[in-house]
Amino acid sequence: MGSGVLASATAMDKSFAKSIFSAHGMKVAEGVVITAEKWASSQSACESLVSIFSYPLFVKPARGGSSRGTTKVHNSSELAGAIQDAHRFDRKALVEEGISGREIEVAVLEVDGALVISQPGEVIIDKKFEFYSFEAKYLDDATTANIPANLPADVIAEIRSEAQTAFTSLGCSGLARVDFIYSDKGEIVINEINTMPGFTPTSMYPSLMAASGITYSEIIDELMKCALSRKNSVLGN
């Protein structure tokens, strides 16, 4: 059920996924990968790579989840500690320029071979948190969601179109949640795609689908139908 190995692994590695998104014309945050090996062999060279970017930066494990190991870096004195923390979770750390904006999420569901794209929802984060951190997501009841997001109609249409592009560009199937930042400059920046999003009745994915007229039980029915209709193959997704 859901995406196969290739699509799931590519989506999990944000550095790989970003390259594919960019190749399909989607805007991504500027950034660089710093491996644990590179950092150990030449910290100064790694810091030089990062110096072309403007602060604040975000440092995260390239293949992490739930924002664990993710740090907002305000200046160069905080960089080393953030990279070392990311390396605790993954030998690949992704350093990206920070983008000020709104957290927007879209649910995608495969129904009879076609894609249903939900209305976008906005994650509202308590102002005591600087970003959508692990603590903000799970430990403090610090987030709420506005579904649908209060956005202009043309922006909604573009975000939904880009969600479909993200899904198809990685060869996903079944379901996914696509996360964007709608920047203060009016740019739509894809952050990541989650091929197996949170799926409790109150999670964002089923909530987005419910607002688009598809119930929790209907989602499960469609996922089962999609899985049963898939032909077995070595490379099949």
Question: Quick summary of this structure?
Answer:
This protein is of the alpha+beta class and about 240 residues long.
Description:
This protein has 237 residues and is an alpha+beta fold. It has two domains: 155 residues, D-amino Acid Aminotransferase, Chain A, domain 1; 67 residues, ATP-grasp fold, A domain (Dna Ligase, domain 1). Helices cover 36% and strands 25% of the residues. It is built from nine helices and ten strands. Strands 5, 6, 7, 8, 9 and 10 form a six-stranded antiparallel β-sheet that branches. A four-stranded antiparallel β-sheet has the order 1-4-2-3.
**Radius of gyration based on Cα positions:** 18 Å
CATH superfamily of the largest domain: ATP-grasp fold, B domain
What structural category do the secondary elements indicate? alpha+beta
Number of spatially distinct domains: 2
CATH class of the largest domain: Alpha Beta
Helix content: 25-40%
The ordered string of helix (H) and strand (E) elements is HHEHHEEHEEEEHEHEEHH
Topology:
Blueprint: H1 5-12, H2 14-23, E1 31-35, H3 36-41, H4 43-50, E2 57-61, E3 71-73, H5 79-87, E4 92-97, E5 101-111, E6 114-117, E7 121-125, H6 134-138, E8 143-146, H7 153-169, E9 175-183, E10 188-194, H8 204-211, H9 216-229
Antiparallel strand pairs: 1-4, 2-3, 2-4, 5-6, 5-7, 5-9, 7-8, 9-10
InterPro entries: ATP-grasp (IPR011761), ATP_grasp_subdomain_1 (IPR013815), D-Ala_lig_Van_CS (IPR000291), Dala_Dala_lig_C (IPR011095)
GO cellular component, one term: cytosol
Family: Belongs to the D-alanine--D-alanine ligase family.
